[in-house]
Amino acid sequence: MKARRLWLLALTIPLIWLGGFIWFLRASQEAAMDGNATDAIVVLTGGAERVETGFRLLTEGAAPRLFVSGVHPESRLADLARGAGMDAARLAGRVELGHAAASTRGNAVEIAAWAKLREVGTIRLVTAGYHMPRARTELRRTVPAMRVVPHPVTPARLREDGALWQPRNLGLLLGEYMKFLGAEAGLSGLIGGRRA
């Protein structure tokens, strides 16, 4: 009887893990929620097209202000604008940069402090689709009252046909899934909570 329970447990745990990974893949493919008004746009640095997307949303009027979390300490707005092909003068006064965060958990803390100071209650969160579940988990834990509207960005390397099954991309997604599970368990500070 004990052997049968162990066998069932040994079968059940991988099936639950696999089901969770399938959910994670679907969640990482979720489309941006357009049309929802927010107090601010928040961009998590660390991947291609995120800052550019945030600047575009700001210039399109998706929100009146933008906060970029986790910016390199030496980078300034002019540097980010130049990299995005934007005129920094058009962004001045509406964009703030956070230089303190070095992890997703750190992003949540940095965003919470900024939002409290600015009385921001709703944000449009811009990050990679595969990073969105973990980022939302960390924000929910740090600022439970904040409403987060996801605006995922799909990196070019994941937009190609069959991209999910390329070893490099599959490794990225599996690693991010494990980090997400750690964040859900409250272990992000212990198991590599670095940004994606």
Mean pLDDT value: 90
The largest β sheet comes out as: 5 strands, parallel
- Rg, Cα atoms, Å: 18 Å
Low-confidence stretches: none
Total beta-strand segments: 5
Give the spatial strand order of the biggest sheet: 3-2-1-4-5
Shape category: elongated
Could you give the distance between the termini?
44 Å
Order of helices and strands: HEHEHHEHEHEH
Structural class: alpha/beta
Count of DSSP H/I helices: 7
Estimated helix fraction: 40-55%
The percent range for strand residues is 5-15%
Task: Give the topology, please.
Elements: H1 2-28, E1 40-44, H2 50-59, E2 66-69, H3 77-83, H4 88-91, E3 95-97, H5 104-118, E4 122-128, H6 132-142, E5 147-153, H7 167-184
Parallel strand pairs: 1-2, 1-4, 2-3, 4-5
Helix pairs in contact: 5-6, 6-7
Provide a concise account of the structure shown.
The chain contains 7 helices and 5 strands, in the order αβαβααβαβαβα. The protein has helices at 2-28, 50-59, 77-83, 88-91, 104-118, 132-142, 167-184; strands at 40-44, 66-69, 95-97, 122-128, 147-153.
How would you describe this protein?
The protein is α/β, with parallel strands linked by helices and 196 residues long. The protein has 7 helices and 5 strands. The protein has helices at 2-28, 50-59, 77-83, 88-91, 104-118, 132-142, 167-184, and strands at 40-44, 66-69, 95-97, 122-128, 147-153. It has a 5-stranded parallel beta sheet, sandwiched between helices. Helix 5 crosses helix 6 and helix 6 (132-142) runs parallel beside helix 7. The termini are far apart.
